[in-house]
Design brief:
With 159 residues, the protein is α+β, with helices and mostly antiparallel strands. The chain contains 2 helices and 8 strands, in the order H-E-E-E-E-H-E-E-E-E. A hairpin with a 5-residue loop joins strand 6 and strand 7 (140-146). The radius of gyration is 21 Å and the shape is extended.
Amino acid sequence: MKRTIIMSLIGVLFVLILGSYSLFFYAQRPLVRAKSEATAIAKEQAGIEKAMDFYWYNGGVDTYFTVGGYTNEEEYQYVVIKQNGGNTWTFSSQEIVTEEEAKSILLALKQPSDILEARIGMEKEEPFWEVAYQDEEGQLGYIIISARTGELIREFQDI
C-alpha cells in the first residue's frame, strides 16, 4: 500500500516537472524565434559576425528587435529592425550611447535601487534607450533617452 502511494506521488511529480518544462519551453519560443531571425538579418544587413546582445522593444505603436554585435573588423554595432515592414537601421557604438552609458545616465538622474533592463526603440527614425528601474520604495519607473545625445526625452515614475 505504501509503495503504491509512493509510486503515485513519483508519477504525479514527474508529470508536474514535465508539464512545467513544456510550459516554459513553449513560452520561450517567440523570444527564441525573434532573436534567431533578427540575428540572421543583422548578419546579412550589417555584417555582424558575433551577436552579443538582443533587445526587444514593444512600446508605442511599433515593435523593434535589436541585435548588438561585432563585425569582422571587431567594430561593435547595433542593428535595429522594425518588426512590421522590416526597416533596418545600423548604428556604430561610436555614434550612439551604449547600453552601459544609458544605465550610467539613469544612475546620474535617478539613483535607483535596481536597474531592471535597457532596450533600444525608435521614434521618427531616431534611436532611443528605454531604461527601466526600481526606486527605493519599490516603485517602477523608466526613462527614455536619446541614443544619439544621451539627453533625457521622457520619464515615467511610480508605476
